[in-house]
Amino acid sequence: MIIEFKDEIDITNEKNQGLQDDILLQFIVTSYVGIVEWWIKNEMPKPPEVMAEQVGILLDRNL
User: Fold this and answer.
1) Taking a C-beta distance cutoff of 8 angstroms, is the pair 5, 17 a contact?
2) What is the rounded CA–CA span in Å between residue 61 and residue 42?
């Protein structure tokens, strides 16, 4: 996961200025893994399409 997201983060973006890339990367990866874990542990309460859309939006806001 870290390798996949490493090229996606942009610390020069206004919303990410002042953040260190390794900390931002760790935040994004653990958030992604955590939401997938929550989804599975809770017997997938939302359809995969909804999860993909929602997680995609959240990632876009943070990358």
Assistant:
1) no
2) 25
Report the distance separating Cα 28 and Cα 37, nearest Å.
Answer: 14
How many Cβ atoms sit within 10 Å of the Cβ of residue 28? 20
Predicted TM-score (pTM) of the model is 0.74
Residue type, position 9, single letter: I
Rounded average pLDDT over 32-41: 96
Tell me the Cα Rg of the chain. Answer: 13
Spatial CA neighbour of 34 closest among 1, 61, 57: 1
The set of residues, in sequence order, having a beta carbon less than 8 Å from that of 9 and lying 6+ positions away, is 16, 21, 24, 25, 28, 63
Task: Return the structure tokens found at 53.
Answer: 């859309």
